[in-house]
Amino acid sequence: MSNKERGEQIRRQIVRDVRHHPIDIAKHIATIFSISPQAVNSHIKRLETEGWLKSSGVGKGKRYFLGDLREYKSLFPLTEDFAEDSIWRNHYAFVLDGLPENIVDICHYGFTEMVNNVIDHSGGAKIYLSATRDKEKIVMVVVDNGEGIFKKIKRLCNLSDERQALFELSKGKLTTDPDNHTGEGIFFTSRVFDEFEIQSCGIQFSHDDTFDFDFILESPISREEDGTTVYMLIKRDSARQMQSVFDDYAGPDKFQFNKTVIPVRLAQYGNEKLISRSQAKRLLARVERFHYVIFDFEGVSAIGQAFADEIFRVYAKAHPEITLLPDKMEPNVEKMVSRAIASRSAN
């Protein structure tokens, strides 16, 4: 280990242990690393300067506390007694101490939902968890070495490929264990954070609140590599409230998750055009679980007559209890949608 790496290790240990050793942190760290308290003090001064630590008092009465910058990272075995609530409470909650309640609520929700998904669904043996707080944002990362979320959904739901699994996941209410899960956790977690990403099986789903639409990309992770990585970021000055996000996807009954927004562009594979009934049927999979379905055509320049007809005439006529609402249409898209709706009314 180089001197630089050892120094970083010492400073990480100081930040990790200072809550339990506010008075004797120098002596405590010196014992662990077999170095002098004076050597530890040089690391403590650096951490104070950078904002990781703060202190009060002088001499023997000096006490050290966590500063505004905070971080905790660790690898855990997924044993039978591993539980997301105790892991949060005992290891990660301190990262959020002193921040606004809405930020704490969002981070607590996202962390526990994603960790619980790993426990219940991944089939993995290990989980890596990270929470970092700097002056502007909170970043949390959850990594498991299980089957891979898209691969498992594809297999259990008998879907055509991993991209279709991701697309279905983006609608909400998709779960491989309906007796124990509603399928809402990932959907709402992706909406309460400023940035949310899932990488698995060579596919990356990215939701950024500053953009009008989500992305499906080829990720740097090999398709042959199992496991799933979830990345969540929220700015410290965010005014977002979790309840307002839940309300956005509720209809007249505020206690029901009965509305979904489908980003139509995610149904496009590569440069293909949305023209066929089979493409429309892929888009319509499982929408019967919702009362209100908004088709977001942002980024879609044109659609075919058969595609529009399948959604806004055939499916709409067969499911009058579901409200289908097109949104953000360009002129060519609006023309085809209006034609299909008019045809349905004429019949």
Kindly list the characteristics that best describe this protein:
347 residues, alpha+beta, Arc Repressor Mutant, subunit A, 3 domains, seven-stranded antiparallel beta sheet, three-stranded parallel beta sheet, 41% helix, elongated
Structural summary, described in words:
- This protein has 347 residues and is an alpha+beta fold.
- The protein has 3 domains: 64 residues, Arc Repressor Mutant, subunit A, CATH 1.10.10.10; 175 residues, Histidine kinase-like ATPase, C-terminal domain (Heat Shock Protein 90, 2-Layer Sandwich), CATH 3.30.565.10; 96 residues.
- It contains 12 helices and 12 strands.
- A 7-stranded antiparallel beta sheet has the order 3-4-5-9-6-7-8, covered by helices on one side. A 3-stranded parallel beta sheet has the order 10-11-12, with helices on one face.
- The chain is elongated and about 85 Å long.
